[in-house]
Model the fold of this input.
Amino acid sequence: MRYAMAVDTKKCVGCSDCVVACQTENNVPIGFCRDWVVEVIDGTYPQLEVELRSERCNHCENAPCVRCCPTGASHIVEGGIVMVKPNKCIGCGACIASCPYDARYPHPKGYVDKCTFCFHRVKQGMKPACVAVCPTKCMYFGDLDDPNSDLSVMLKRRKHKTLIPEAGTLPQLYFLI
Amino acid sequence: MSWGAWTLLVITVSAFIWCALHIREFFPNWDWKYKWLKDLEIFFNRYKKQLAWVMLIFAIITGVYTGILLSAFNARPLWNTSVLGPLFLASGLSAGAAAIVLSSKDKKERILFTKIDLVILATELFLIVHMFMGFMASTQVQIEAAQLFLGGPYTMAFWIFVVMLGIIIPGVLDLMELRGKHIPAALPGILVLMGSFFFRFIFVFAGQVSRWLY
Done:
């Protein structure tokens, strides 16, 4: 079991529905977000190239946030999902500084919060809120160990990349390009 | 990195016990008042040697820990170097030696620790140069992290407060003192303590500015 996600940068229109869905589903406090949309523009007018990426925690295989956590609040659960135990977290912020993707934020209640791949939904066989709500169906969530899952098929069929693999974190959020 | 938190737990308690055992050096008329505190003092006095060994080992781990914790941060190229652990240890040891020089009343002890401080300061300077050499020979993100100190916003703070006032000038003053020149006794100690403080302060701040590019 290895959960992962792929985002099709060619299909994404940058509507930020995933952001709103996540904030609603996970009761994210106002002013914070667990996922966000990045718009990268290359070139000069009229030769422009735009890449839209819906980014979130990469649920790294070699997660620096888990390694740096002084209390063991950051941990990896089944399927490789990186989670935070709010009652063990002291809010020191070591994980926030250690994440190359800026995927974590300090929750006003005093602990660090982040994307959980909607573990509570995934356990019940549903898809994460951001994937379920996407109007262009540009996100694929599934099990990398299952060769027939949507995700594995897409990754076999399409060219893809991960963000800064050179940081050595083995990220599991793929971008189809 | 929870081992560092456990180390801090051990070293804090044992350091307080150690201070309590030596409190009469500073307050000769100190009285513990309660019987169980006096019993505790007798108990720890019996095992003072063992306590000293525990403190020696855990003090080294504590000194290295900060550096290793920061060097485990993948996202911050400035911290993500293995030299940081020994560098923090050297900076901590020189601060410790300086504190002993400042507080000691024994002339012989002061001279011994001035010599020790001199060696550690030289090591620290070597490690800083070594670290920047490593950065400049590495990837673009590391080069940009080093640029924060080589022309970037932290250049002046680092080279003046840490390297000049914190390492080179106290080193020269220590040398002059050992050669028999008369200098204000407290000056090198205070400078080294300030230098160690600024080193940590500047490094923790600058590290958060350095980042991966994507």
